[in-house]
Predict the structure.
Amino acid sequence: MAGRSASRIRTALMAYLVVIVSVIFFISPMLWIGYTSFRTQGSIFSGQIVSPSKEYTLQNYVTIFSETDFPLYFWNSLRIGVVITLFSLFVSIIGAYSLSRFNIRWKNALIIGIFSTQMFPQVLLIIPMYLVIVDLGLLDRVIGVVLGQLILILPFQIWMLKGYFDNLPLDLDDAARIDGCNIAERLLYVIIPIAMPGISVAAFYSFVVSWGDYLIVSIINQTSRTATLTLVMQRLSASLLIRWGEVAAVTVLTIVPTILLFSFIQGRLVAGLTAGAIREE
Amino acid sequence: MRETCPTFMKTRERCAVGRADFLRGQPPMSADHTSQLRKRLRVPVIRESRQGALLLLPALIIMAVFTVYPLLDGLWMALTDQNLLRKTIDFIGLNNFARMLSDNVFWLSLEHSIELTSLVVLFQFALGLVLAWAMSQNLPGMTLFKSIIMASWVIPVAATVTMFKFMAQPDIGFINIVLKALGFSNLNRYWLGDLTFAFPFIMLLHLWRNVPFYGIAFLAAMQAIPKTYYEAAEIDGANAWARFRYITLPGIRNMITVMVTIHVLWTFNNFDFVWLATGGGPVNVTDVLPTYIYRQSWSNYDLGYAASMGTVMLVILMIYFVVYMRVLEGQARS
C-alpha cells in the first residue's frame, strides 16, 4: 500500500508541475500587458519590473479615450461583431437544422463540401472576393466586412451546429409535428430553446472570430469608417516610437470583451465546438 | 396542418409540452408511437423535406458567392497575368507556375509553411495530451485551472501578437528583463527581429494560443471513456503506459483526428501570426506562403501570380487530406 500512495503523490506532484508551468506560460503574458497598461512611459522604459508607486497611472486609458479614435474603432468592432453574430446565427441555425433533419438530395456531398471549404486558403479567396466586394460597391462598408467575414465563420459554425442538432432526439421533432407545429414553429419553440447551449457557443464563436479578424478588414477597410481594433493595434505597434503604455491599454480593452463573454460560456465551449466530433450514444 | 394550430399562443404551448418532457429527462414520445400517429395523420413528409431543403438555401447562396465563386475565379486568375495596376488581363497558361520554379522566396516560404505546420501541430498534440492528463487528475484547484486555461484561445490573435511583441522588446521586454536578472544580459535582443529565434518564436505563439484548446478537447474525450475499462485493466495488471496506449488513445482517437485535421488546415492557412509579428522578416526567415501571397497581391498587386501560389497551397492541402483520410481508413480497418 505504501508504494501505491507514494505513486499517487508522485502523480499529483507531476500534475501540479504541469499546472504551474501552464499558468506561468499561458496566463502571465496577459497579466503583464494588464500591468503595463497602468505604468507611465518612463516606468516602462526603466527596464524594471516594479517601479515607485507614483509611476502608476490611469493616464494611458484617459489618453486613448480622449486623444485618439479608439472609441470609434471600438464601436466599429462591436457593431461588425454583433451584426455578423446575428446574421451568421440565423443562416447557420436553419442550415444546420436542414442538414440534420431532412432528406436532402446530395446531403453527404453538401456536408463534405461545406466542411472542405475550410481547406481553401483564405489568402487565395480574398483576391476574387475583393473584386466582388468592389463590384457590389461595398468597399469600406460595414456590410462588406460582414459578408467577407462570413466565409471565415459559416462553414465551421454550420458543421458545429449540425453536430449539436444531431445529438438531439428526433422524437422531439416528431412529437411537435404531430402536435401540429410546422418547421418554423418547431425550430423556434422546440429546437432552439433546447439547443441553446450549443447555439450560445456558436454565437460566441462568430463574435470572437469577427472581433479578432485582421485579414478581411485589412483589405476591405479604407478609412476610419470600418477600421477595427485589430487593425489599429497593428498600426500602433508598428509605428516608430511606440507608446507602450497606450498600446497596452488598447490591448487590454480589446481582450476584456472576449474574456468576459468567455467567462459565461467556458464550461460549454469545447463540448459545443467539437459537437460534430463526438456522437452521443 | 395549419388548421390544428389556430392561434399563436396555442402552438407555443403545444410545442412546449414536448420540450418540457425532454428537459425532465423523459423521451417526448416513443418512436413507434409517433410513426403510427404519423401514418394516421398523413403528415406530408415529402413536402416537408422540400421545405427543409429551402432552409439550407441562404447558407448555400452565401457560400456560392463568397467562397465557391472566388475559388473558381482564383483558379482561373492563376492562369492570367491580372494586375490591379493594369487594365488588360491576358491568359498566360502556366507561366505563373514556371515563374515559381525560379522564385527563391516562394520555395523558402513553402518550406517554412510545411515546417511550421508539422512542428506546431506535433507539439500541440503532444503538449495537449500532457495538459489533458494533468487536468484529468482529480486534484484541488483543477476546476479553476480548467476554467481559465482556454482564455488564450479566445483573445484576438492581434492582441496575442502585441503582447508577445512587447515581451520580446530589447531592454524593456519581460523576457529580456528576466534573462538579465538571471545573469544572461548578453542574450538581450529583440527576439522577433533575430535571424535565429524569430521563427521558433512564431511557433511559440501558435502553441500559446492552441495548446489549451487541445488539452481541454482531449480531456472532454477522455472523460467520455467508461471508468470500468480502466478498472478492468488495472485488475488485469496493466501498467499506466498500457492503460494509456490501449484504452485512452483509442478512446480519444476521433477527437485526435478532428483536432489534427482542423489545425493542419488552420495553421497552414494562418496568415495573421506571421504577418502581425514580423511581416515575414527579418529577411524572409519567417515568411510563409500566406504572407508571401498577401504581399504579392496587396503590395505588388500581382493578383495572377498570387492566385497561382494560392492554388499550390490548395493542392498541397488536398493531397494532405486525401493521404490522411486513406491512412485513417487503413487504421480503422486493421
Summary: Residues 323 and 329 of chain B are 10 Å apart (CA to CA). The longest helix of chain B spans residues 104-136.
